[in-house]
Amino acid sequence: MADTVDRLLAVVASKGMTVFAVIDHSGAAAGAGLTLRDTKVVIFGSPQAGTPVMQAAPLAALDLPLKVLVWADGIQTKVSYTAPRVLAARYDLSPELSTRLAGIDPLTDAVVAENA
Questions:
Q1: For the chain, what is the HEC assignment?
Q2: CATH fold of 2-115, please?
Q3: Domain extent listing, the chain
Q4: Longest C-alpha distance within the chain, in Å?
Q5: Rounded Cα–Cα distance for residues 68 and 5 (Å)
Q6: Would you call 40 exposed, middle or buried from its count of C-beta atoms within 10 A (0-12, 13-18, 19+)?
Q7: What is the pTM of this model?
Q8: For the sheet containing 76-80, what is the strand order?
Q9: Per-residue pLDDT of the chain (116 residues; tens, 9 = 90+)
């Protein structure tokens, strides 16, 4: 799990994007005396990519910057996110604006490939 988060952070940095936050849901749960499978959300993006999307569709700010959930499912670590096509449909984005979100697919593919 920790290795996957570290790989994700490294790939994001290598693409010149900004990591805005890492939210440790399981750590917060433990701090409250609760148990939760290892669960972290990495929030990252690029103002150059996201700003035009939010200019065209202000409500897209609800989903931007992009987020990747890294979570433990038994002995597996899983990587989940909202697909760019779903975001594009949700906010009725033009094809040009949709491509600004599509970079998450190869990014997460690279993280998962390193894990295989």
A1: CHHHHHHHHHHHHHCCCEEEEEEEHHHHHHHCCCCCCCEEEEEEECHHHHHHHHHHCHHHHHCCCEEEEEEEECCEEEEECCCHHHHHHHCCCCHHHHHCCCCHHHHHHHHHHHHC
A2: TATA-Binding Protein (3.30.310)
A3: 2-115
A4: 47
A5: 10
A6: buried
A7: 0.93
A8: 18-24, 39-45, 66-73, 76-80
A9: 999 999 999 999 999 999 999 999 999 999 999 999 999 999 999 999 999 999 999 999 999 999 999 999 999 999 999 999 999 999 999 999 999 999 899 999 999 887 66
Kindly report the length of the chain: 116
